[in-house]
Specification:
By secondary structure, the protein is mainly α. Helices cover 65% and strands 5% of the residues. The longest helix is centred in the middle third of the chain and has 31 residues, at 244-274.
């Protein structure tokens, strides 16, 4: 018996050893991501959006209905991730897992565009640094973290389709429409890629722009088909007619992708219909995003620049860029066509509301990493082909203008991103200070309280007030102000539908909120001192509550027994 057990253990040990050896590099990537993100486990409850997600997750756990009993303005999956996580630690670990999946998926994608390992490694380093470091809030599990995971997995599924393969290898013939219908494998991959993009959209609406990348691939495949046909035909019209079968194949395959995406969206609509909250889901989960996108009005140096940041201006700029890529597509590598289109779309997504939040730009970094790798390789290739001539003149040997044109393209793309960041006044977070603080905490040079208070000045009061709130017998408290951190930290749910004062302001829900407080009669009410008074709240508190505790940033009111 012991002999058989020993053989079984040895066989499984060998399988594990072979698996680890085969996937050593991918496992190393996972360990690198884990190492970079170690400080996230020590962070306090300091980040507003994360606190909102956790607060809604707690409310869902208590049986409240999303968009009816508790409201935020994003599509639903991010709140269910918070529900599943159960705590900030769990949410951070889930975000870390999503980033590891994204990193591995991105590495696999790079194999399509870069033959040399050095190029792939360089792009991968850029991706890892900018999606994990706090500079663009990569350490926080924001919606973009999960959107990136679904989008990259969707692209990996799309890699298995005949349409994507025709993009990489134009010599490959596109299947006829009848074959597409009969080919179960190709159809399934098309549906899966669309469904994964649907999940990305249900995490955050701007993921639609990642989804649009599939259609850009289809467009470039069609452009290539026209080019081949034109080489054999006399006129452009004849070339269009000759490429009709290719167009039919492309449209059919993209139609299947769209069905996969739409199916996921329809499932969510049916779910909320059965829950009796479909109108609220449409209003707050879907349509409110359009209102949110148009409610921020930054100041720009000129009317022309302001126009380019409008929806029409962005569509115009992107249309011009696609036109340039189309006309010069033979002068660009597949990597540049794919990455520059993708970056243009994700930059559109990141600037949809023109808000200066760094985490919005996480979405651009997969494409940007590819663009930067292309740029560096062009520079390296140019240096290798150049040598000093007479009189110190640098002589370069090249067999085409392709590197020059592609270099110009990368310059345009990167410059556009940098100018956008500057015009929107996006201010990335300091990275060295973040790790220096954690090092001091880990080496006991500072206390956890000193570490905590560096993140947000309200945290000292929050952690003290949270102890008071936890002792309350009620599951609900009311906090007037923009301090969802206190809900998440105390594990309490909001009275009423809103987690922050700015949502109450947005929806002019003052009377609704007062009515909810009067109906629920929470034992404790917290009023932030930096917040404009809620109409009617002070009068109600004076008649039903007494000040229980005073803090520099807030006052805690306790319901009186009189």
């Amino acid at each position: 018996m012991s002999f058989m057990l020993g053989r079984w253990l040895w066989r499984n040990f060998r399988k594990l050893d072979i698996f680890l050896d085969k996937h050593a590099f991918l496992l190393a990537l996972a360990l690198i991501v884990l190492f970079i993100r170690v400080p996230t486990i020590a962070e306090p409850y300091w980040y507003g959006d994360e606190a909102i997600y956790l607060t809604l997750g707690n409310s869902l756990r208590a049986g409240e209905r999303l968009y009816v009993d508790i409201i935020d303005h994003k599509t639903p999956l991010i709140y269910y991730f918070a529900l599943f996580s159960g705590s900030q630690f769990g949410f951070r670990m889930l975000g870390t897992a999503a980033t590891i999946v994204s990193t591995i998926a991105f590495y696999i994608l790079l194999k399509d565009f870069f033959v040399r390992k050095s190029q792939r490694l360089f792009a991968l380093i850029i991706f890892i640094l900018y999606t994990n470091l706090p500079r663009f809030e990569g350490n926080i599990p924001n919606g973009e973290t999960f959107v990136m995971m679904f989008a990259l997995l969707g692209i990996l599924a799309f890699r298995q389709t005949r349409l994507y393969q025709a993009f990489l290898q134009p010599s490959r013939k596109l299947p006829h429409r009848s074959y597409i219908v009969k080919s179960t494998s190709n159809t399934i991959w098309l549906l899966i890629s669309g469904a994964l993009m649907g999940l990305a959209t249900l995490t955050k609406v701007p993921a639609i722009f990642d989804f649009a990348m599939f259609f850009m691939v289809g467009w470039f495949v069609y452009v290539e088909a026209i080019s081949r046909a034109k080489a054999n035909e006399v006129t452009f019209t004849q070339a269009l007619l000759a490429s009709r079968s290719s167009l039919g194949s492309i449209v059919t395959q993209l139609g299947i992708v769209f069905v996969g995406w739409l199916s996921v969206i329809l499932i969510s609509i049916v779910y909320y219909f059965l829950r009796g909250s479909l109108p609220q889901y449409i209003d707050y989960g879907l349509l409110y995003n359009f209102r949110y996108a148009g409610s921020w009005n930054p100041q720009f140096p000129s009317a022309l620049i302001a126009f380019f940041f409008t929806l029409k201006g962005k569509v115009l700029l992107f249309g011009v860029w696609v036109y340039i890529l189309t006309v010069l597509h033979k002068h660009f590598s597949k990597a540049f066509l794919f990455a520059s289109s993708w970056l243009g779309l994700t930059l559109f997504a990141a600037t949809l509301s023109n808000r200066p939040y760094p985490h919005y730009f996480l979405q651009v970094f997969p494409a940007l990493a590819i663009i930067v790798a292309i740029t560096v390789w062009i520079i390296v290739l140019t240096i290798r082909r150049c040598k000093p001539g007479k009189n110190g003149v640098l002589l370069c040997e090249t067999d085409s203008t392709k590197p020059v044109i592609e270099a110009a393209g990368t310059f345009i793309v990167i410059s556009t991103l940098l100018v956008t960041l500057n015009l929107l006044h996006v201010r990335p977070y300091p990275t060295l200070r973040y790790y220096d603080l954690f090092y001091k905490l880990a080496t006991q040079q500072i206390s956890w309280e000193e570490y905590r208070d560096q993140f947000n000045p309200v945290l000292k009061d929050n952690y003290q007030v949270a102890k008071i709130l936890r002792r309350s017998p009620d599951m609900e408290v009311f906090i007037w102000g923009n301090n969802p951190l206190l809900y998440a930290l105390s594990g309490k749910n909001p009275v009423g539908r809103f987690t922050v004062a700015f949502h109450i302001d947005d929806f002019n829900a003052y009377q609704e909120t007062i009515t909810a407080i009067e109906a629920k009669k929470p034992t404790l009410v917290v009023v932030m001192k930096d917040q404009v008074p809620l109409p009617g709240l002070r009068e109600y508190l004076m008649s039903e509550y007494i000040p229980n505790s005073e803090y520099p940033t807030m006052t805690v009111w306790r319901r009186s027994t009189r």
